[in-house]
Amino acid sequence: MYSAQIRSSRTFLQKQIPSSHEGFVAITADFRRLSLQSEIMRRITTPIIRFCTGFLLLTTSYAAAAEHGMDEKVLSQIPENLQAIVDRGQSTGMVALVARNGKIASIDAVGWRIMNKEPLETTDVFWAASITKSFVAVAIMMMVDEGHLQLDDLVEKHIPEFKGQKVKTGKKSSDTAKHPLTIRNLLNHLDGLPKNPTRSRATKSIKERVLKAAKDTLMWEPGTKWNYGGEGLYVAAYLVEKYSDTPYAEFLKTRMLDPLGMKNTYFTIKDVPENRGVWKHSKHKKGKWEAEKLRDFNWSTGGSYFAVDGGFFCTAEDLFPWCQMLLNGGEYGGVRYLSEKSVRELTRKQTGEVKPAGHGVGNFHALAFQEAVEPQGPTAALTKGSFGKGGSGGSMTWVDPHTKTIYIMLQNAWGGDRNLTHSTFLNTTAKAIPPK
After folding, report:
1. In contact, 359 and 228? CB cutoff 8 Å
2. pLDDT, position 287
3. 364: pLDDT strictly greater than 70
4. Contact between residue 288 and residue 296 where contact means Cβ atoms under 8 Å apart
5. What pLDDT shows up at residue 132?
6. For a designed S-S bond to 393, which of 29, 124, 244, 412 qualifies (C-beta 3.0 to 4.6 A apart)?
7. For 332-344, how does the pLDDT look when each residue is reduced to its tens digit (9 = 90+)?
8. How far is CA 143 from CA 181, 267, 338, in A?
9. Burial class, 205, CB count within 10 angstroms (exposed 0-12 / middle 13-18 / buried 19+)
10. Which residues of 12-22 are buried (b: 16+ CB within 10 A; e: fewer)?
């Protein structure tokens, strides 16, 4: 009963400050902490909250509906349905955010920051994992908009070391690639560049890593086979460094994070406040969840430079302006980041007839994003043409241009049932959208 009343109070506060997602999340965190007080405090405050919440919701419900146009009663079911999944041991917890018509409609935290020790709060920081990849593609499209390059340019035009790159033709044979790498190949996972983690960890910069990759033999002719990975993204990040004359991480900070107000997105776990970092939870064969502190994604870099394919740590709230900028066609808060043409290119299927070429049936890779070409299964609630990006640990973002809805869910759980978690969140939320 008490937790339901706290959720209702959160809904009211959201209605009062729909244009300030930062303030909204800060206040919801206060209510989250309130819910963790002693049993005595709960008994004292429950009647007061019940009265105030009921009165305030009654006087503001119409105004709220006009802001985001979603059914508040259905939205209130999101934390209840997700909590049921946690209770069944199919996840350890998540923060789920819904936005529509440019307004945050709901944000909830269920489960644990540290399993059975510290509950999650909406302001907690998760490892974003592969969601990080999408920032590379946006950075490249900025370079396109500025006239530095085109997607179908050969990589060798901009990095001469790639000229004459070989492609594997047999177990011990190779030949010059008939279809040399294009910049588009770097972002759609059709590049064919092999991974060499040991060597990559020994390099000291993105440039050094890329120039070594230029000497590698490609695994296949670029554009003919899909293999999810990150080597092409490092080549793309180097191009951003070359034409912006700025280290890649600094480019992200000055051109995206700071202007968008993403103050709780971090390049290293060392900068994440210790009391807000969500631990990594792994489920073992006996069904028990075990928690351990998160570490930087050094598997890919050795720690000498930012992992462009999975290095970010962030909050769900921080991803809202990022997604909203894309939903707006490249503009947010009066600032234009990308042309509308570039956003369309980023978010449409980019893998041709190659199959498989995405995560989940009906999904195909765009440029470091995915497009739901044929929504089904966990994504059945989305409309065709929705786009997004997920990450290891079960996090995901989806943007539905047709309904103008943003879905963000962050979790750091290896194990459980992420398809159930995703489909529950998407299906519940979609029911709150009024039919046209």
Report:
1. yes
2. 83
3. yes
4. no
5. 97
6. 412
7. 999 999 999 999 9
8. 18, 22, 10
9. middle
10. bbbbeebeebb
CA angle 296, 301, 305 (to 5 degrees): 85
pLDDT digits (tens, 9 = 90+) for 368-396: 999 999 999 999 999 999 999 999 999 99
Report whether 48 contacts 9 (CB < 8 A).
no
> 386 by DSSP, 3-state: which?
strand
Tell me the CA distances in angstroms from 187 to 136, 152, 183, one per residue in order.
8, 11, 7
Rounded Cα distance, 120 and 199, in Å: 38
Paired with 388 in beta bridges are 370, 398
Structure token pair of residue 40: 């005595």
Amino acid at 288: K
CA neighbor of 422 nearest in space, from 85, 69, 121: 85
Peptide bond into 47 cis (omega under 30): no
* Exposure of 204 in the CB half-sphere (CA atoms within 13 A): 0
Model pLDDT, residue 299: 84
Q: How far apart are alpha carbons 362 and 376 in whole angstroms?
A: 7
Residue 328: phi and psi, rounded to 5, are -80, 0
Tell me, what's the pLDDT at 68? 87
Q: Using CA atoms, how far apart are residues 70 and 231, in angstroms rounded to an integer?
A: 41
pLDDT digits (tens, 9 = 90+) for 68-90: 889 999 999 999 999 999 999 99
Q: For 328, how many CA atoms within 13 A lie in the half-sphere containing its CB?
A: 19
Q: Is the pLDDT reported for residue 247 higher than 70?
A: yes
Distances from the Cα of 306 to the Cα of 175, 234, 237, 380, 389, angstroms: 33, 10, 10, 35, 19
Lookup result for tokens 């999944």: 85
Amino acid at 131: I
Distances (CA, A) of 434 to 52, 77, 204: 28, 16, 52
What is the Cα–Cα distance from 366 to 307, expressed in whole angstroms? 21
Please tell me whether the peptide bond between 435 and the residue prior to it is cis, using omega within 30 degrees of 0: no
The β-bridge partners of 371 are 364, 387
Beta-bridge partners for 94: 110
Please check the confidence at residue 50 and state whether its pLDDT lies above 60. no
